Amino acid sequence: MNKLIIEGAHKLQGEVRISGAKNAALPLIAATLLARGWHTIHNVPDLRDTRTMLALLETLGAEWKRESSTLLVNTDSLNNFEASYDLVKTMRASILVLGPLLARMGKTRVSLPGGCAIGARPIDFHLQGLKNLGATLALEEGYVTASAKKHLTGGNVYFDVPSVTGTENILMAAVLAKGETVIKNAAREPEVSNLVDMLISMGARIDGRGTDRLTIQGVTRLKPAEITTIPDRIETGTYLIAVGTAGGEVSVTHCNPSHLPSLIEKLRSAGLIIKESENSLFVSRPAKVQSIDIKTQPYPGFPTDLQAQLMVLMTLANGLSVITETIFENRFMHVAELKRMGAEIKINGNSAIVKGIKQLKGARVMATDLRASASLVVAALAAHGVTEISRIYHLERGYEDIVGKLQALGARVRKEQE
Ligand code: UD1
Fold it and tell me: How would residue 116 be classed by pLDDT, with cut points 50, 70 and 90?
């Protein structure tokens, strides 16, 4: 296993290029299951999670090749319709093959994801949605078996709370269903719109892109896609916050500032200077940051995937800050590790009360999930002394070349074998 060694309290300076979004690339790769021919997906990050999704597609019979950040995928010769426990347990998003496999093959068997470090994370919305499209479902030996008679039929799907991968799964099932499907209270995340664009380029008929009501008219056949993965808004936000904690001046390029409305607004109220242009952001921290309160919400609200990183910024702010997590029930695992670095944080139900202190101190800490790991990096960059972060395989699931990118910004960071 690898660990990261970070010598903190050095300002970040220079330019960092944002990669394609992991959470967009995963459904785009899954959507290649819907049509024969070679699909082209540009700007795909080379990450543990994208490799896992490609490994899963390979087990189904797909072929793929990578040319730099462009991925070519062909699913002509599918010969298996099962996503095994071994793959699904390493990446929950493997569930994204459920909808497209059912639409293309008429049957599928996908392992249940099981528990997850940040909460129970059920898939009941995915299953209920597919049932409403006429699928027959059974649970056996930890697997969901889904089948459709001749084909799926359009139906109404309503989510109690907007689910990102739930919306994506139902979209991919509905594009080849007979008749009209309406998804109400659909997730409005930019990654969902990226998938809608891909499906439309394949010949799907979808109205309501970017809204909470998606209407899909099923078609009988789709053609291969050419699509570009949107920039990773969570990676973008993580680098912006890192400048907030460590100080310095950084240009964040190849990003999409319009996908981060709540974060940019919040960071400005905390006192960061952020200048926006169409595809880049310039960020600097002129003085000590001020405390702000945040509450995680579905898009366009504050993203849960940036909650842990923003909390680190608040550990160094003037005053008290209240951070409320409304999406996942167990997403404060970074708190215990941050306390080891001197942070003053109290948990009260689904809120964390953070008292700003003068400085964090380096310590040995452990990464527990993807975004918690990112928060430890952001903390370590600001901390006085050396921080050793173990179990960084979590980080490698979602941040492309984080060590190289931080080194280019002048951070003293290196990877070592544990
Ligand atoms: C996606 C993202 C993840 C992000 C999350 C919330 C991907 C691959 N992952 O995860 O990084 O943190 O959105 O923005 O895109 N829920 C149910 N039943 C379901 C589905 C969801 O109760 O069947 C609940 C969840 O427990 C959670 C809420 O709905 O409370 C939203 O979760 P959801 O949007 O589904 O998260 P993911 O799609 O798994």
Answer: low
130 CA → ligand 1 middle, Å: 17
Task: Give the binding-site residues of ligand 1, using a 6 Å CB cut-off.
Answer: 23, 26, 93, 121-126, 161, 163-166, 187, 191, 304-305, 327-328
| Angstrom distance (rounded) from CA 221 to CA 215 | 18
| Per-residue pLDDT tens digits for 274-290 | 999 999 999 999 989 99
Same domain, 165 and 284: no
pLDDT tops 70 at residue 16: yes
Spatial CA neighbour of 18 closest among 411, 415, 409, 412: 409
Q: Mutual orientation of helices 370-382 and 233-246 as an angle, nearest 10°?
A: 30
**The domain that contains 240 carries what CATH number?**
3.65.10.10
Distance CA 299, CA 224 (A): 29
Q: 């291969």: which residue's tokens?
A: 224
Q: What domain count does the chain have?
A: 2
Check whether 373 has a pLDDT greater than 60: yes
| Residue tagged 């995963």 (tokens) | 26
For the question of residue 255 being annotated catalytic, the response is no
